[in-house]
Amino acid sequence: MISKPDNQKAVQTASPRQWIALVVVYLSIPLVLLVCGGDFGWWQAWVYAFLFVVAGIGGRIWAERRHPGLLAERQNIEKIQSAKAWDKVLAPLMALSVSFPLVIVAGLDHRHGWSPVFPLWLIVLGFILISLGYAFADWALVENRFFSSTVRIQTDRGHAVCDSGPYRIVRHPGYAGNILPLAGIVLALGSIWTLIPATVALIITVIRTTLEDRTLQDELPGYQDYAQRVRYRLIPGIF
User: What's the rounded Cα separation, in Å, for the pair 108 and 19?
Assistant: First the structure.
């Protein structure tokens, strides 16, 4: 079952305030990285900032053009409050874990020299992982008009299974796309200590994926059949 086009009469487009909030968030994370690093000539931080901002803001502009109203839906406080009780904890925890702790530790590591200098090929490999991960996550966001910020069955929007694009590869490509950059940031920013918050973020992602998948199998019509066709949740052949 493939998601159907939005009912245009029900579309609520994002307000300028919502767009401004989005931009502020996506600019603040690279800024924190540079401030913690104490080195505005740190080229890896600038490359990471570019990839992060382009993927974060550009991906959402692309998704909004494809599915008008998606940003407003993802930031709708009333609908966020209707999420599963466990996800009211896990959703903000995951959003936090894949962002600020990583750049804070990486920045401080760069400032104080806690880690040895990484060879260039490892740094480049890190940026490749970051680029692939962000691209895969953006593809999922653009493909699925029900890509909500919290776990809830969107009966008010005619929630249906999305099985196209990256959803033919794994059942949760948005989460899968956030996993690759966890390793990528460690390598690209040359910080062994960033493995600690990256591991915490990975654990939170796996827990949330498992609970969300169970919810969809129990409550979303057609999802069990989809799960039979696409066997893996995050990593093909493994999980």
Answer: 30
Residue 158 pLDDT > 90, yes or no? no
Q: Report the predicted TM-score, pTM, of the whole model to 2 decimal places.
A: 0.91
Q: What is the pLDDT of residue 11?
A: 55
List, as one string, the DSSP characters of the chain. --PPPP-GGG--PPPHHHHHHHHHHHHHHHHHHHHHHT-TT-HHHHHHHHHHHIIIIIHHHHHHHHSTTHHHHHT-HHHHHTS-TTHHHHHHHHHHHTSHHHHHHHHHHHHHT-SPPPPHHHHHHHHHHHHHHHHHHHHHHHH-TT--SS----GGGT-----SGGGGT-S-HHHHHHHHHHHHHHHHTT-GGGHHHHHHHHHHHHHHHHHHHHHHHHHSTTHHHHHHHS--SSSTTT-
Give the relative orientation of helices 195-219 and 87-97 as an angle to the nearest 10 degrees. 150
* Confidence (pLDDT) at 232: 97
Q: Is the pLDDT of residue 123 over 90?
A: yes
Average pLDDT, stretch 112-116? Answer: 97
Looking from the CA of 119 toward its CB, the CA atoms found within 13 Å total 3
Q: With 90 as the cut, is the pLDDT of residue 177 above it?
A: yes
Distance CA 229, CA 168 (A): 8
Between the CA of residue 178 and those of 82, 119, 135, 185, 209, what are the distances in Å? 24, 24, 10, 11, 12
